[in-house]
Amino acid sequence: MEEERPRTFAAYEPDLLSGRRLRLSAELAAEVAEVDRLVRAFNDAAPTSPHLESLARFLLRSEAVASSRIEGVVASARAIAHLELMLATKAGDEQRSTRGISDSAREVVNNVLALRRAVTALSNTEAAVTVDDINGLQAALMVETEQHETSGFLRTVQNWVGGNSYGPHGAEYVPPAPEAVAPLMTDLAAFISEDHPLPLVQAALVHAQFETIHPYNDGNGRTGRALIHTALARQGLAVGHVLPISMSLLAHAREYIAGLNAYRYVGEPDSHAAAAGVDAWIRVFLAATRDAVAEARRFTDELIQMRKAWYAKLADYRESQGRRGQPRKGAAVVRLMEQLPGVPIVTARATQSLLSISFVAASSALDELAGAGVVQVKEVERGTRAYLATDVLDLINGAERRLTYTKWELPELDAWA
Fold first, then answer.
1. Are residues 286 and 307 both part of a single domain?
2. Rg (CA), the chain
3. Which of 129, 233, 306, 351 is least surrounded, with the fewest CB atoms within 10 Å of its CB?
4. 390/112 Cα distance (integer angstroms)
5. Residue 411 falls inside a structural domain
6. Which of 248, 271, 294 is the last residue of a domain?
7. pLDDT single digits (tens) 118-161
8. Which residues are 203's β-sheet partners?
9. Measuring CA to CA, which residue among 238, 237, 230, 244 is closest to residue 120?
10. Of 240, 266, 294, which residue constitutes the final position of a domain?
11. Average pLDDT over residues 61-88
12. Statement to judge: residues 327 and 217 lie in one domain
């Protein structure tokens, strides 16, 4: 039997990022440019409002669900959308309105809200990102969870990844000592705020550095993946929407972990080991981003086809009622169908607010879509009916299955696995 290699548990402290010069090989630089082109091409081809608004909401939810699932936080798309609806409308007593909603759904919805904050409040390039901003992002993940009271603060104790709760023996990774966390986070915030010539490289380094620092007691993975989108939004590479990068990382968990391990090189920042490790991680990030662009395009196409099918169902239903098949342009029922990919569970009150129409008009539009089979009806509270666009809720699961079978050609990661 091969003797097990001894392992050390010294805390790893990464080099600083702000102002650091990074040299990419010609091959990797070309790959960065190619994926950058793909992202920008998707941006240019993205549908116009209101399609973009509903697509953006759909993509953001998909990203938050996948990012949470990487951490083992799993909830059904239906439960997530239901809780979003309850929180948005605050119907009735808040305690009653969230009854039956799992803690996991609560955490995923927190992730949706935190991710939205990451690409809005933190995307303003006129203001530098601060450590307090990042603390606020992590705190948003912990609202109404057991960790809420201690969230939003950098850790003051040593933590580790893997192993058990009693000590770092058997841990997969031991992050920097507590006293090193604050200066490393200050450097990271400054790096996010830089105007970087290679946005994808900046986003990749931001995420890997954050996960290496592991600055919080909980929520590090989700916060770090949200910061990917902060970096991209600040550089104008993903404006108005997010790419489902976490969905690809979820489907390639082995490569994801190996890439982060590669990033944690041993040696000087200008050494060969540093260049090899950083290059390996950037390749993982580029592969995930390439997948994310392809998936975002597929989502766009699928949502277009879904809307066409909805229009056909609606026309058939209206004709069966002796009415004109196609409703007038701008009718409430048409506007609602445009919004459903972004808000797949609605009530009459929520629709009233969403479309700025009367309660009667909202109820009529929903009943018409229910009659056509576009949405399904479910009672969520006594006297309150919800309308579910189950076609939308099924899309994310299909995407995860597709990505699981996507192969990455990254042989150099074998040395870091």
1. no
2. 23
3. 306
4. 19
5. no
6. 294
7. 999 999 889 999 999 999 999 999 998 888 888 999 999 999 99
8. none
9. 230
10. 294
11. 83
12. no
- Asked if residue 385 lies in contact with residue 377, where contact means CB atoms within 8 angstroms, the answer is yes
* Residue 69 · residue 250 · CB < 8 Å: yes
Residue 7 lies in a domain: no
CB atoms within 10 A of CB 381: 15
> What domain range is 247 assigned to?
29-294
Residue-by-residue DSSP string for 81-128: HHHHHHHHH--S-HHHHTTT--HHHHHHHHHHHHHHHHTTGGG-TTS-
Asked if residue 207 and residue 272 are part of one domain, the reply reads yes
Tell me the residue type at 12.
Y
Q: What is the mean pLDDT of the chain?
A: 88
- The structural domain count of the chain equals 2
Instruction: Provide the residue type at 336 as one letter.
Output: L
Q: Domain with 328 in it: what CATH number?
A: 1.10.10.10
37 with 176, same domain?
A: yes
Distance between CA atoms of 50 and 38, rounded to whole angstroms?
23
Dihedrals phi, psi of 79, to nearest 5 degrees: -65, -40
Hey, CA dihedral for 68, 74, 77, 79, is it positive or negative?
A: negative
Closest CA to 233 of 206, 210, 257: 206
Residues 37 and 138 in one domain: yes
Answer yes or no: are the C-beta atoms of 42 and 239 closer than 8 Å: no
Domain assignment present for residue 400? The answer is no
Read off the DSSP letter of residue 166. Answer: T
Question: In the sheet that 345-346 helps form, which strands lie side by side, from edge to edge?
Answer: 345-346, 384-388, 376-381
Segment 2-26 shows an average pLDDT of 77
Q: For residue 50, is the peptide bond before it cis, meaning its omega torsion is within 30 degrees of 0? A: yes
Answer yes or no: do 285 and 363 share one domain.
no
Residue with tokens 């004109």: 324
pLDDT tens column, 264-303: 999 999 999 999 999 999 999 999 999 999 999 999 999 9
For the entire predicted model, the pTM comes to 0.90
Burial of 180 per CB tally in 10 Å (0-12, 13-18, 19+): middle
Judge whether residue 192 has pLDDT over 60: yes
For β-strands 376-381 and 384-388, DSSP reports them as antiparallel
Helices and strands counted in the chain (H then E) = 16, 5
- Does residue 318 share a domain with residue 198? no
Per-residue pLDDT for 205 more than 70?
yes
* Coil/strand/helix, residue 324: coil
- The CATH number of the domain holding residue 175 is 1.10.3290.10
Measured in Å, how far apart are the chain's first and last C-alpha atoms?
Answer: 21
**117 within some domain:** yes
